[in-house]
């Protein structure tokens, strides 16, 4: 590796670090890959993902009747504070690189004039100059790579929390449903067996019993509706305009259907096991497709979070691109002919188009996540972007104050030639 040129060595380091972080990301997600929740037992097992455990602990400390949306906000702020050293590191390196490029500008022009016809030698001299001025490429990329790793790890945690809440909601509804059925049967038939349990088949073996059981099932579904929309439960699931924060802020129903909770449709949802479609529809029949917006009250949200996420992501991208903007490397020497300038103009245009595409792609990607995945994860992305913008504005203000203070003291870095 010592025989590699500086540029190739730097690229190799970046690729190795990226590969290492990618492996770490896969390990962290794979170690918590069990995204199923069985609802056939007496209780629902708690999430296994460490991010989900952190959110659950936060929920227990803040109170079980607090909206999970506010727990997401607090969780996001805490996570951003934990990751703030990485943000500071990246911003300091970017600032350092910008100043280094300003110092190197005259030298890069001189190198272009001197070695313009020898591209290999020119590249070697440029890399040597970057090394001398400590212009860091790896330092700028590493925090960004870590941010992406954190994004997907947190995503896996939210996926488990969504499935856990779905399992809890169904289990509570199942208990309310069966309790109501049992009470109605015992009230009508009494304790027919020595153990106090009356088999459903004994009730429905004749026409009168079948009619009774049909009415009992309707009453049990009404008991589920009362339990599901209990004030303490609606506080946990609701957040501002969103009826159920565990469902996307869009046209999805507040109460997910069987295909969604079992992972057969939808996105970012852990699947429930130990349940059949008939059982789920019997228990949840009175609440599916109720309590929302739009026609027949089926919309869980109003598409506000996806729109806000896109707008805030655009703003964040603009601020970051402005803060990370590096002065153009002056590789177009005065002695270049028109053909060479034309080629470099084309390269420059292509680079600018690629940058614009990235500025549009990232906000659109955030919008897709916010639109299709749970409102809780969309709220996390929105809050994270909002905190990042505040942090960037604060850093820019402090940086300007530091620059002004140094200018007054006469500490101005001189350009080297």
What's the structural blueprint in terms of helices and strands?
Elements: H1 6-30, E1 36-38, H2 50-62, H3 68-115, H4 119-132, H5 138-189, H6 200-203, H7 207-228, H8 231-237, H9 258-261, E2 271-273, H10 277-284, H11 304-323, H12 338-372, H13 375-409
Parallel strand pairs: 1-2
Helix pairs in contact: 1-5, 2-3, 2-5, 3-4, 3-5, 3-13, 5-7, 11-12, 11-13, 12-13
Largest sheet: 2 strands, parallel
Low-confidence stretches: 1-7, 325-338
Helix content class: 55-70%
N- and C-termini, Cα separation: 31 Å
Strand order of the largest sheet: 1-2
Strand fraction equals: under 5%
The helix/strand series, from N terminus to C terminus, equals HEHHHHHHHHEHHHH
**Could you give the count of β-strands?**
2
Helix-and-strand structural type? mainly alpha
The whole-number mean of residue pLDDT values reads 75
The radius of gyration computed from the alpha-carbon positions, rounded to a whole number of angstroms, is 30 Å
H/I helix tally: 13
> What spatial form do the alpha-carbon principal axes imply?
elongated
Task: Give structural notes.
This protein is an all-alpha fold and 417 residues long. The protein contains 13 helices and two strands, in the order αβααααααααβαααα. The chain has a two-stranded parallel ribbon. Helix 3 (68-115) packs antiparallel against helix 5, helix 11 (304-323) packs antiparallel against helix 12 (338-372) and helix 11 runs parallel beside helix 13 (375-409). 27% of the residues are buried. Residues 1-7 and 325-338 have low confidence and may be disordered.
């Amino acid at each position: 590796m010592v025989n590699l040129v500086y540029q190739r060595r730097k690229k190799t380091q970046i690729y190795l670090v990226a590969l290492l972080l990618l492996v770490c990301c896969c390990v962290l997600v794979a170690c918590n890959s069990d995204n199923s929740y069985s609802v056939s037992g007496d209780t629902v097992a708690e999430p296994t993902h460490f991010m989900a455990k952190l959110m659950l602990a936060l929920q227990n400390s803040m109170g079980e009747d607090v909206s999970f949306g506010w727990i997401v906000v607090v969780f996001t702020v805490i996570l951003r504070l934990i990751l703030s050293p990485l943000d500071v590191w990246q911003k300091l390196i970017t600032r350092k690189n910008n100043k280094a490029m300003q110092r190197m500008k005259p030298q890069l022009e001189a190198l272009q004039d001197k070695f313009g016809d020898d591209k290999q030698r020119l590249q070697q001299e440029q890399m040597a100059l970057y090394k001398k001025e400590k212009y860091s490429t790896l330092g700028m990329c590493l925090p960004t790579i870590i941010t992406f790793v954190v994004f997907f790890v947190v995503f896996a945690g939210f996926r488990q929390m969504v499935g856990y809440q779905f399992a809890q909601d169904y289990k509570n509804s199942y208990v309310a449903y069966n309790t109501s059925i049992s009470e109605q049967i015992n009230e009508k038939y009494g304790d027919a067996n020595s153990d106090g349990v009356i088999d459903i088949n004994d009730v429905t073996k004749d026409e009168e019993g079948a009619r009774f059981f049909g009415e009992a099932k309707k009453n049990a579904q009404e008991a589920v509706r009362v339990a599901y929309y209990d004030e303490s439960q609606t506080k946990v699931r609701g957040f501002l305009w969103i009826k159920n924060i565990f469902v996307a802020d869009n046209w999805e129903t507040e109460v997910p259907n069987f295909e969604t909770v079992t992972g057969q449709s939808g996105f970012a949802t852990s699947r429930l096991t130990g349940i059949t479609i008939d059982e789920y529809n019997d228990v949840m029949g009175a609440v599916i497709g109720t309590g929302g917006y739009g026609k027949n009250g089926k919309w869980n949200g109003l598409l506000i979070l996806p729109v806000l996420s896109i707008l805030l992501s655009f703003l964040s991208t603009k601020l970051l691109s402005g803060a990370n903007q590096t002065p153009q490397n002056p590789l177009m020497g005065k002695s270049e002919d028109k053909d060479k300038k034309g080629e470099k103009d084309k390269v420059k245009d292509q680079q600018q188009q690629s940058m614009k595409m990235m500025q549009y792609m990232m906000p659109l990607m955030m919008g897709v996540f916010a639109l299709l995945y749970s409102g809780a994860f969309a709220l996390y992305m929105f809050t994270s972007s909002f905190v990042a913008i505040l942090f960037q504005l604060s850093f820019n203000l402090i940086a300007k104050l530091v620059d002004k203070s140094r200018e007054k003291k006469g500490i101005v870095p001189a350009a080297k030639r």
